[in-house]
Amino acid sequence: MSHLSYKDQGIDREPMIHLGYEAAALERRGIATERGDYNRAVQKRNLSRLAEGVASGVRNQNLELARPHAANAEREALKTEQGQESAENVLKEKSQDEALKTARHLNMLKEKYAALEKDLAGLITERNEGRQEIPRLLYKIEQLDEHAKNVAVLQGRVEGLQGNRQNLGFLQWAKKQEVDKAISRAEQDLSRAEFFFKNRFYVDPSQAAEEIKQIQEKVRVMESDVHTKNAAILDIMGMQDKILLGYHTQKLLAEAHHDKDKIALLLEKLNRPPESVRDRLLHERIDRRLNIIPEESFQKVIEKLPPYQAHILTNIREQAKERERLKEIEKERHHTYERSR
Length: 341
Prior knowledge:
Blueprint: H1 21-28, H2 34-60, H3 63-167, H4 173-201, H5 208-256, H6 260-270, H7 277-291, H8 295-304, H9 307-340
Helix pairs in contact: 2-3, 3-4, 3-5, 3-6, 3-7, 5-8, 5-9
C-alpha cells in the first residue's frame, strides 16, 4: 500500500470512492446506492483498461514475450469473470434467502396477531356477558327483597288478626265473625303472595335472605372476573400494538428492498386461507389493519429506525403520496371531461 496515487505510481487504473457506513449497510441488504453503482462502473472500466493494456503490450513486444502476457491476461480475465459470476450467484442466493426470511417473518407476525385477535374476541364476549348479567342479578336481589317484605307484611297481618280474635269475649259472636272474615281474606292474600314468590324465584319466602346472600356473592365473583378480563384484554391489546409496530416496520423495509415483489409473492404463498366464513372475515379485517399504515404508525416506525433507513422510507412514502395525488388529479380531470361531454 502506498500514499501515492495510481497516476503517480504509473498505474493505469481508476480509483474507487469510499462507500461510507450508510451506503455499505444498504449494499449488504441488497439495496443499490449511488456510491455502489459508481464503484461497480469503475471496476468495469478498470477491467476494460486491463484487457486493452495487455493487447497493446502484445503489439509492442515480440511474439515470444506477448504469448505469456496474453495467456496471463486471459487467465486473469477468466478468473475475474468467474469470480464475478460466483459473486453474483452468491448475492442472488443471499437475496433469495433474505426475501424468504422476510416473508416468513411477516407471516409469523400476522399469525401471532390473528391468534391474539381470536383470544381478544373471546375475552370481550365473556366480559360483556358478565357485564350484562350483573345488573340482572342486582335487580333480582331488589325484587327478592321487596317481595319477601310483602310476604312478611301479610304474615304479620294474619298473625295480628288471629291475636285479636283470641282477645274477643265469649259472647262477642258478631265481632268474631267479622274478624274471621278478615283473617280468611288475609290468609288468601298471603297464600297468593307465597305462591307468586315461589313461582318467580323458585325458593320459599322463608329462604329469601339466604338466596339474596348467595346472589350477592355471585355478583362479587362476577365483578372480580370482569375486572380480571379487562386486565387481560388490555394486555393482549398491548401485545398486538407491539406486533403491529413490528409488522409495519418489516413491511416498510420490505417495500424499500429491491426484491419487494418477490417478498410479496412469497408472503402470498405462505398465507393459508381460512376455512370458515367467520375466520375469513376476521383475516380480511386483520389484513386491512396490518397492511394499511396510517401516518401515526409510520411516524412510530421512523422514530425507531437508523437515520439512513428513516430517510429512505420517508422518500418512498412521499413519492407514493405524490403518485396518489397525481392519480386523484387525473381522476378529477376525467370526471370533469365526462361531465362536459
